[in-house]
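A protein record in our archive is deliberately plain, so that people and models can read it alike. The tokens are whole numbers drawn from a learned vocabulary of local backbone shapes. For reference, a complete record is included directly beneath this paragraph.
>
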Amino acid sequence: MKKNLAVLLFGAVLLSCGGCKPMGNSLKSIEGKDGLFADIETTRGDIVVELYYKQTPLTVANFVGLAEGTLDSHKGKKFYDGLKFHRVIADFMIQGGDPAGNGTGGPGYKFADEIVEELAEKNEQVKGIKFRRNYGKSPALYCGFKEAQGDVVITMDADLQDSPDEIPGLYQMITKDGFDLVSGYKQNRKQGDPLSKTIPTKLFNATARKVSGIHNLHDFNCGLKAYRRDVVKNIEVYGEMHRYIPYLAKNAGFAKIGEKPVHHQARKFGTSKFMGWNRFVNGYLDLMTLWFLSNFGKKPMHVFGFLGSVVFFIAFLSLIGLGIDKAIDLHRGIYGHLITDSPYFFIALIAMVLGSQFFLAGFLGDLISRQNPNRNDYQIEKEIRCKK
């Protein structure tokens, strides 16, 4: 048995409920199929859904009764005709529930992007960026920094661990005290953070201070930070490098980096993505990558070539020593002792191969670096010329 049900909606694309499944955007998609289907006509196109009346009979019965106007409470009135829905998520759902119960109002709550949209309508200075999926914190900061236009840029996480009351103090340290970057310092971590997070955090920050040379920072990964606009326009935050934005800023030539103790409170939304020792290990690897790139990114031959030369030289001296030892045995009339009988021969041989590979890696790295279009990309603070 095949039965079609016409439903007219405004502002909707797709209807999905516990007993529905999208089939296509025309009646041709159900030709030759048995079942109960709803043909939904909307201002954004048509959609055909299959109703699972066997699996969810009550849900389907209520839907059909509302659509056809046969329910006692809506006798003679087709509930969905002309109904304006509050929210549309393509290929997932349309939402019509609201406190009034007639589909003309809101559902009583809003998603974050809807709040930003309303603010942007009221103030042209408000801008929002929404990814198609969650790419992470560093890509979000990169896109936000790219769009930022103010003289001072302040970032804070959305989990409400940081207080907006700290913003005036951070702003003053940038504008009046002359800092390039100010990072928050969550001193009181007793509220909400377990030891499995606080101990690795202390080790992580100690390592970051040592490697980066920024000894006055105690909380590199604090999301509450303030920047001069020049800073965010001259650093590239990628991967998970948001932990090391002060280090990135220092490498870009912004050396005046300060810290401000900030109030820390329990997280109200979301969960931490960097808990326990996994946070420390990943952070350590990123830190080593950043250290290497900042010191040898434009001159890889200096590290690989030097390391390869040292390994090759030590291995070569070892082989010479084995050769001298063999010559002494021959001089004494000892002929049964072969150089290859010594394990040191193979160790030295492997070391020579490794040394050669290190050297070649440095050489190839230099060749690639020379082809990099950004090889001469340097941060210029200002240019001084004769004004005549």
Remarks:
- The chain has a mean pLDDT of 77.
